[in-house]
Amino acid sequence: MPQPTEPILLPDNLEDAIAQAIAAAHQAIADGGNRVLVDLRFPELKVMPIAYEFAASFNQIYGQEWQAIFSDAGAAALARREWADLDVSVRGVNEGRKAIREEDKAFLLIEPTSVEVELVEKLAQLAGDRPFVMLNPRLENSEVGLGLSARQMRDRFLSTFETAYYIKPLELGALWRCYPQTWQVWQQTPSGMQPMAEVTQRPSSDDIDRLFQQKTGKQSGSFLGRLQQFFNALSR
Q1: Is 231 buried (19+), middle (13-18) or exposed (0-12) by CB count in 10 A?
Q2: Is 112 helix (H, G, I), strand (E, B) or coil?
Q3: Which residues lie below 8 Å from residue 103, measured CB to CB, with a gap of 6+?
Q4: What number does CATH give the domain 10-236?
Q5: Residue 231: band (very low, low, confident or very high) from pLDDT cuts 50, 70, 90
């Protein structure tokens, strides 16, 4: 995997995180990835403004030969109204082959949920080797009522994606991946955020807790905690 000439650093605001995510996704595609995942794990984050920035970048690269796909009909209708200046083709995940046109060169799927896993997998298969980017998937949100076979299908499907960008605040730090760099765990220190460890695979919550316990004597803590101040741009 190619490495950047200068290391990319953990962003200190949402705008920089979005810019990093867009660059990482397109770099992963340029390097041959055709199934790419981008996930900004902030609570109460509104995905539409982020999706707009991604859509603008897709317009620059693919012109009109790509599709924006939403799992929710209301979100798709909202995008059609709010993205009029982008002249983007917007579809719903349930539109099947209409959402995967032969002339399209790429696809951006925005915030699919576990309910649509089967539909999403079919869309990805129809896309073939063309870039298929999932933005902020919420495929793990509906564990209750999701049978074992459905969970296995979801996990198998997710394993076919390259995580180009992932960021999740923790109470004592953050879990972050920005392609082509590896997964990184950062910790909050009196002098600011500092890198604590790099790992080749996405660590589990237990892995992160053990790492913080070894390095700091404390567990990583809750999802948000004090790091909410670190990403103050989220409230704007």
Answers
A1: buried
A2: coil
A3: 65
A4: 3.40.50
A5: low
| Contact between 88 and 55 (Cβ < 8 Å) | yes
CA distance 205 to 228: 19
d(CA 70, CA 68): 7
The span from the CA of 176 to the CA of 194, in Å, is: 12
d(CA 192, CA 173): 10
Domain boundaries, the chain: 10-236
Is the pTM above the cut of 0.85?
A: yes
Q: Is residue 91 predicted with pLDDT exceeding 90?
A: yes
Which sign does the torsion angle of CA 49, 53, 59, 62 carry? negative
Q: What's the sign of the alpha-carbon dihedral 10, 13, 16, 20?
A: positive
Question: Using an 8 Å Cβ cutoff, are 86 and 79 in contact?
Answer: no
Task: Say what the pLDDT of residue 44 is.
Answer: 84
Tokens of 145: 């009522």
